[in-house]
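Is this the right way to post structure tokens for a design question? Let me know if I should format differently. Anyway, here goes:
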């Protein structure tokens, strides 16, 4: 500290610029560490209850061009799936449409479904569609209605599962 004489002859010890700078650096470093701890806790909270999901299903029923996943595969009550990929194997080259549905009736046509998520218009035995973050969300009472121009052999779904009340973390 530097000795300074003030008016009236009093002598005071005042900190130098370097001493002030050192103290400020220490305080800012401590503050940055606390900020990092808060950010880490927030990130852990965001990730809590999010887990990867995948389902590979071989269609064992009689050959068909329409299939709903609602009977076999879907999120449990209280959870939401954020589908990132839908892959479908057809018996031979054909096209595929996929709709989000709440109905298990496979006799419906694509025209009666209103929530189209995949329109695979290029003919191929393997149809694959990918989605960004929350473009294809399935709730507990929802599944996929697959409508193909050829018989469906198998399909694969992959993405993330999260508790329904925490769906905001998928956005």
């Amino acid at each position: 500290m530097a000795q300074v004489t003030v008016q009236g002859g009093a002598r005071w010890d005042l900190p130098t610029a370097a001493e002030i700078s050192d103290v400020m650096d220490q305080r800012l470093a401590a503050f940055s560490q606390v900020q990092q701890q808060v950010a880490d806790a927030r990130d852990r909270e965001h990730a809590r209850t999010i887990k990867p999901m995948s389902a590979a299903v071989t269609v064992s029923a009689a050959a068909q061009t329409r299939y709903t996943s609602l009977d076999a595969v879907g999120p449990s009550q209280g959870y939401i799936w954020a589908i990132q990929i839908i892959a479908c194997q057809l018996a031979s080259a054909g096209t595929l449409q996929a709709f989000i549905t709440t109905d298990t009736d496979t006799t419906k046509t694509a025209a009666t479904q209103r929530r189209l998520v995949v329109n695979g218009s290029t003919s191929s035995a393997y149809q694959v569609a990918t989605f960004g973050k929350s473009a294809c969300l399935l709730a507990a009472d929802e599944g996929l209605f697959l409508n193909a121009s050829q018989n469906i052999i198998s399909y694969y779904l992959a993405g993330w599962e999260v508790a329904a009340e925490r769906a905001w973390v998928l956005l």
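Format looks fine. Someone answered above. Worth noting: The two ends are 54 Å apart (CA to CA). Residues 37 and 127 are 45 Å apart (CA to CA).
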